From TrEMBL:
It comes from Pseudomyxococcus hansupus. The keyword Nucleotide-binding does not apply. Belongs to the acetyltransferase family. RimJ subfamily. The lineage of its organism: Bacteria, Pseudomonadati, Myxococcota, Myxococcia, Myxococcales. This is Acetyltransferase, GNAT family. Residues 10-167 form the N-acetyltransferase domain. InterPro entries: Acyl_CoA_acyltransferase, GNAT_dom, N-acetyltransferase. It comes from the Bacteria. One of its GO terms (molecular function) is acyltransferase activity, transferring groups other than amino-acyl groups.
Length: 186
């Protein structure tokens, strides 16, 4: 680390206190925090405490939070592997990109890199996530990366609208059809 994303000049590196100011500024945009796992509104000074916790979680192997970096712009967002379970060989992924950088394929590329880290470096078998129904950009990111929907459930997170739904997704390291030679594509 840092490691280059093979398709372009995207760099992924563990979040450190060097990212504090840019992370605080970009995460404080309600358009970023409202639909993600970030607290909304994003509290002043929260980035410093969060990065400290992220560093401890990485040391324990519980979570791996990566800064999404571009050579010119520097820090542009985060992509995280959380709830890492070596026993179940599973984890959860989440991502956000600062609003000035939306629509450039960055979330897709960053999350693809993190999936590679999960499946190749950590040898996990499945990565899950959940998305607020109606978060079209995020749903599209998951579609591009081969996530499959598992279920839809009513939202219970008070930060989201009470009448909202969440859609849960899963991405397997190896597609089921490749594990079962007798399986037929539908
Ligand atoms: C969701 C988010 C990470 C996407 O980041 P991004 O870097 O812009 O994503 P990408 O460019 O890789 O892909 C976005 C896709 O959604 C599409 N998209 C975005 N808005 C859309 C809209 N209103 N209608 C249709 N498609 C849309 C883009 O065209 C693109 O698809 P394409 O490559 O086929 O053209 C970013 O919007 C974000 O940080 N949102 C706030 C936090 C959040 O919601 N995080 C996800 C929590 S589950």
């Amino acid at each position: 680390m840092p490691a280059a994303d093979s398709s372009d000049a995207l760099l992924m590196e563990p979040v450190t206190r060097l990212h504090t100011a840019a992370l605080q500024a970009l995460a404080s945009d309600p358009a970023v925090s409202a639909t993600s796992h970030l607290p909304s509104p994003y509290p002043p000074g929260h980035a410093e405490a969060w990065i400290h916790a992220a560093t401890e979680a990485r040391a324990k192997g519980e979570a791996f939070h990566f800064a999404v970096m571009l050579p010119q712009e520097g820090f542009v967002g985060c992509c995280s592997l959380m709830a890492v379970s070596p026993r179940e060989r599973s984890a959860q992924v989440s991502y956000w990109i600062g609003r000035p950088y939306w629509g450039r394929g960055l979330a897709t590329r960053a999350t693809r890199w993190v999936l590679g880290f999960a499946f190749e470096a950590l040898k996990l078998e499945r990565v899950r996530t959940c998305v607020l129904d109606g978060n079209i950009a995020s749903l599209r990111v998951l579609e591009k990366l081969g996530f499959l929907p598992l279920l839809r459930a009513p939202n219970r997170n008070p930060k989201f609208p009470l009448d909202a739904s969440l859609v849960f997704f899963e991405r397997l390291a190896v597609p089921l059809s490749s594990r079962r030679p007798d399986a037929q594509d539908s």
